[in-house]
Specification:
Helix content is about 45%, strand content about 15%. The protein is built from eight helices and seven strands. Helix 4 runs parallel beside helix 5. It is globular and about 50 Å long.
Length: about 230
């Protein structure tokens, strides 16, 4: 039975991916900071007959990351690690000239440092099965959107970490995956008061990532919109 750790698995893209994998019989380890939302998601996933370890906590906490990996170990293996949990930072999105430095440090702790720390801890399990590591990124990592300097630069750093990881760990498949705009709570927070109902639901980006996970092309950056044509960005 394949096993995945998905951070931020209680809602949005993380929950959509977890549901899709659960339908295929994957056992899952998911986390989120809000215990009530996490348990609701876990109970839904368990209806597919799969084992789900739902561990409430914050990925910046080393003890919490240890719990996630130990839960995967208890399931016997780790085929897939998805670093999906992240933070947008202060909203409304501030220009860099006004960006609070303590807030920027926290964005980097959550979006950059914690994902690498989790990968480091999970490497022995991943190596045992030539597993897959996925970092969920954004076009804000490569575009100059006003107000997105904090979040976008953290995603750019996350991408570069995984780029180097792919070079250093050639037996693993490492992807930094951009699902595109989605109708999520984070996206709504970025545009307070605006109608984002024209954005697609997170479920629409899952098939593209599933193709990467199962076809296992070369490590690299992939956009959901390009995966069907096999183009990297």
């Amino acid at each position: 039975m394949a096993v995945a750790i998905i951070t931020g698995g209680s809602k949005g893209f993380g929950r959509a991916l977890a549901s899709d994998l659960a339908r295929d019989g994957w056992d899952l380890v998911i986390d989120a900071r809000r215990a009530d939302e996490l348990e609701t998601a876990a109970n839904e996933l368990r209806t597919f007959g799969t084992t789900v370890h739902a561990i409430a906590g914050d990925v910046v906490d080393a003890a919490h990351r240890e719990q996630l990996v130990e839960a995967a170990h208890s399931l016997g293996r780790l085929d897939l690690l998805v670093n999906n949990a992240s933070t947008l930072g202060p909203t409304p999105l501030p220009a860099l000239r006004n960006y609070p430095i303590d807030a920027l440090e926290q964005v980097y702790r959550i979006n950059v440092v914690a994902p690498l720390a989790l990968v480091q801890r999970a490497l022995p399990l991943l190596h045992a099965v030539n597993g897959t590591v996925v970092a969920i990124t954004s076009d804000a990592a490569v575009e100059d959107y006003e107000g997105w300097g904090g979040y976008g630069s953290s995603k750019a750093a996350l991408e570069q970490l995984h780029h180097v990881l792919a070079a250093e760990q050639p037996d693993l498949h490492v992807y930094w995956f951009d699902p595109g705009d989605m109708r999520t709570e984070m996206h709504q927070d970025a545009f307070p008061g605006e109608d984002i109902s024209d954005r697609p639901e997170p479920e629409t980006a899952v098939p593209a990532l599933r193709r990467l996970i199962f076809d296992r092309p070369a490590s690299g950056r992939y956009r959901a919109a390009d995966v069907t044509s096999g183009v990297t960005s």
